[in-house]
Design goal:
Strand content: 5-15%
Number of helices: 15
Length: 450
């Protein structure tokens, strides 16, 4: 790397002497990053606390370098280390060679042929759950969608019934997530050995999760059952290099990673989708027409997925406006040249799909909900990484096909049976950027049967 090159200067808001831009970032990260992009362009710098330099990158070509061509110069951002407390060295947090080895081991479980087998469970869980909904009653859809996706992941992963999965693992997961967010947002998380109330609760929730998964794995081994669920496939997975499978510890880490990443994200996408449908009756009309044409009065079946083109586009457009994984963080592992910029070891880079996917440079009427924009392979006309709801490069979400199929089939099951309306006197709907992008205070919807 040339020492003589004139690197482009990077500008950004000054911030306060000690905390930098931390307060503005914490108050509303989506607004803060959007304004950075508008005011300072493709790369902007700011500071979190006294020492942490951060760069917000919003140019698709530069993003491709960071996530793909020069991805080996970066590691995951340090704030994800909080999740290591529970997911250990799972795919979400592991790095470099170990990450690639694990990904190769797990990838076969997410082949399209296997995902199609899971489609039956997706439909069965959803159909059973929504059959208990009562007409003209107000439902908190964020919670309802979380329940459905929790039921689907426990069924496809562990062959558990909805209630069993919810009781055994759903409650400690929710407890852990709330406490993890607090730790991630803290400038200096208190060491876990300090016996504070939050630390004790946090450690208790982690211990509970570890015990639950350990018991599930142990019971499966003792039973000798060979089930065609995700647990069964991961237990059978063998490396092509040395023929070895995963240790119990690694198996536990990967199961927890898939579980954490695999139900909250899809639940949030579906919640945003249902909200957007209540605001766009013309979209609902086209959706209903497609469901009537493809499915009619019979039950939804896995083969419907490939025929529900407009329904798929509704999900893709929801992910454009409200990507659950709304920001990607990378730590610079060694000095690296990206485009005409130099980033130095220890600095942090943030990339926001939320910001870029609402950029008028790439999307007409970027704030409008227009599933039609995804017709005729529109995405292929965009620069790579102008639209990237599942990340990209070697760390692209391993469950992306699973998630899209799940969201489409759940949406079809719901909209075949029910009309949706936002509850009267609804609070203002705002995104809440936690670990994933949730609607603040949820979405309350009144259902009527068709």
């Amino acid at each position: 790397m040339s020492k003589l090159k004139n690197w482009k200067q990077i500008k950004g808001p000054k911030g306060k002497w000690l905390t930098g831009n931390l307060n503005d970032f914490q108050q509303d990260p989506l607004h803060f990053l959007t304004e950075l992009s508008i005011e300072y362009g493709e790369v902007a710098k700011f500071r979190l606390g006294p020492f942490q330099k951060v760069y917000h990158v919003s140019n698709p070509n530069l993003i491709k370098e960071i996530l793909v061509t020069k991805q080996n110069k970066f590691t995951k951002s340090k704030d994800l280390n909080v999740l290591k407390d529970v997911v250990g060295e799972g795919l979400l947090t592991s790095e470099k060679d170990f990450h690639m080895k694990q990904r190769r081991l797990i990838q076969p479980a997410f082949k399209k042929s296997h995902i199609t087998n899971y489609a039956h469970d997706m439909i069965d869980v959803t159909t059973d759950y929504i059959s208990h909904w009562e007409e003209n009653r107000e439902y908190q859809m964020a919670q309802e969608m979380m329940n459905i996706t929790l039921g689907i992941i426990t069924k496809t992963m562990f062959s558990m019934s909805f209630q069993e999965g919810s009781d055994v693992i759903g409650t400690p997961i929710e407890s852990f997530m709330k406490l993890a967010i607090k730790r991630m947002r803290s400038i200096v998380p208190l060491p876990l050995w300090l016996p504070t109330k939050n630390n004790l609760l946090y450690k208790k929730s982690i211990l509970k999760l570890e015990q639950v998964l350990g018991n599930i794995i142990e019971q499966r081994k003792k039973s000798g059952e060979k089930l065609d669920d995700l647990l069964g496939m991961l237990m059978e997975a063998r490396s092509e290099v040395d023929g070895l499978g995963m240790s119990d510890k690694q198996l536990k880490d990967e199961l927890m990673t898939i579980f954490l990443a695999g139900h909250e994200t899809t639940a949030n996408a579906l919640t945003w989708c249902l909200f957007l449908l209540t605001q766009n009756p013309h979209v609902v009309k086209k959706l209903n027409e497609e469901i009537d044409l493809v499915i009619g009065d019979r039950n939804v079946v896995p083969d419907d997925y490939m025929k529900l083109h407009y329904t798929q586009n509704i999900i893709w457009e929801t992910l454009r406006l409200y990507p659950p994984a709304y920001v990607i963080g990378r730590q610079v592992d060694e000095d690296v040249e990206v485009g005409d910029y130099l980033f130095q070891k220890g600095e942090m880079i943030l990339i926001s799909s939320y910001v870029l996917q609402r950029d008028p440079t790439y999307f007409e009427q970027p704030l409008s909900f227009m599933p039609e924009r995804f017709e005729n392979e529109m995405v292929k006309s965009l620069p790579p990484y102008a639209y990237f709801p599942f990340g990209g490069g070697p760390r692209v979400c391993i469950g992306n096909h699973f998630a899209i199929m799940e969201a489409v089939l759940v949406l079809a099951c719901i909209c075949q049976k029910y009309n949706l309306a936002l509850a009267p006197h609804h609070h203002e709907v705002k995104p809440q950027p936690l670990i994933t992008l949730r609607p603040k205070r949820g979405i309350n919807i009144v259902l009527t049967k068709k």
